[in-house]
């Protein structure tokens, strides 16, 4: 598990599988809020007010384009979330052992952040950047050209036009976001779990959900600029991290780096609770299937 006294008994394959399941569940259930946040962060027409309520955005899109439009780009994001969170939980559960105090086995808040940061970098390179690029391109394309028929069509089109570089457009922004987001999300959750364990606070679904939600709030408020830059660089046309940053500052000024904060906050509070609750539940379901045979992975 992410934290607690039984971490060393959790096989690596269980961390990977449970993380993947949790990521897929969280990605699908919270996607409309992610869709709304991405729409707001993309360049808007001058003079057109930007809604701050994510449900307003979703409602407007639903009324004009139907329910399918609200799930545009959902497939790539869910697949990416399976890989992203599988890798994040796998790396965090394994890496944090290297950062743990050799005598007590516990992690200080700083070491928690370092372990999370390392896991975030690994997730960005292996899964997040390509899936986020496709998701963002699909949402952006649906507003204008409508040339992408599906996630697969968008992937093959970008590959033909720009190769692997096109799929990894926004790598710097994504990596900065994932490194910081995973550091704060996993780190905060782990600190809360350690505190509860030391104070003998009974763990249940409600506590896990609350811990995940708090971790989501901390993550959003500290990493929003990276998310905005990443989104702008991964539009259908694409842009470098420097170009994306410049365009945001020219369009909205410094406050533009926090554009979509309300949207993302609504999602991360919800998704953080779902993610960690699903992960803890998945570990409990998967562990009996492996018995004691998963330890060869260490």
Automatic annotation (TrEMBL):
Pfam families: Mito_carr
Gene Ontology, cellular component aspect: mitochondrial membrane
Record keyword Transmembrane helix present: yes
Keyword vocabulary terms for this entry: Membrane, Mitochondrion, Mitochondrion inner membrane, Repeat, Transmembrane, Transmembrane helix, Transport
Spans traversing the lipid bilayer: none
Signal peptide: none
Membrane topology category: Multi-pass membrane protein
Main location: mitochondrion
Single GO MF annotation: citrate secondary active transmembrane transporter activity
Family: Belongs to the mitochondrial carrier (TC 2.A.29) family.
Protein name as annotated: Tricarboxylate transport protein-like protein
Organism: Ampelomyces quisqualis
Lineage: Eukaryota, Fungi, Dikarya, Ascomycota, Pezizomycotina
């Amino acid at each position: 598990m992410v934290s607690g006294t039984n971490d060393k008994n959790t096989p690596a394959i269980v961390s990977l599988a449970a993380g993947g399941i949790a990521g897929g569940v969280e990605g699908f259930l919270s996607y409309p809020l992610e869709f709304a946040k991405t729409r707001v962060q993309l360049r808007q027409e001058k003079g057109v007010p930007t809604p701050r309520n994510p449900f307003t955005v979703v409602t407007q899109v639903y009324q004009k384009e139907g329910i399918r439009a609200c799930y545009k780009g959902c497939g790539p994001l869910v697949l990416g979330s399976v890989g992203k969170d599988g890798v994040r939980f796998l790396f965090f559960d394994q890496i944090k052992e290297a950062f743990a105090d050799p005598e007590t086995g516990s992690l200080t808040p700083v070491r928690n952040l370092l372990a999370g940061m390392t896991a975030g970098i690994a997730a960005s390179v292996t899964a997040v950047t390509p899936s986020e690029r496709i998701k963002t391109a699909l949402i952006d394309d649906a507003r204008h050209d409508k040339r992408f028929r599906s996630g697969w069509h968008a992937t093959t089109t970008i590959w033909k036009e720009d190769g692997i570089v096109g799929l990894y457009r926004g790598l710097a922004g994504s990596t900065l976001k994932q490194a910081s987001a995973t550091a704060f999300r996993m780190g905060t959750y782990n600190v809360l779990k350690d505190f509860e364990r030391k104070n003998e606070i009974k763990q249940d679904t409600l506590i896990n959900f609350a811990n995940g939600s708090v971790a989501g709030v901390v993550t959003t408020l500290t990493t929003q600029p990276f998310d905005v830059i990443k989104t702008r660089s991964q539009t259908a046309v694409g842009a470098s991290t420097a170009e994306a940053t410049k365009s945001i500052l020219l369009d909205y000024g410094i406050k533009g780096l926090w554009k979509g904060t309300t949207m993302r906050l609504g999602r991360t509070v919800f998704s953080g609770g779902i993610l960690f609750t699903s992960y803890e539940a998945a570990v409990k379901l998967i562990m009996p299937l492996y018995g004691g045979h998963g330890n060869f992975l260490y």
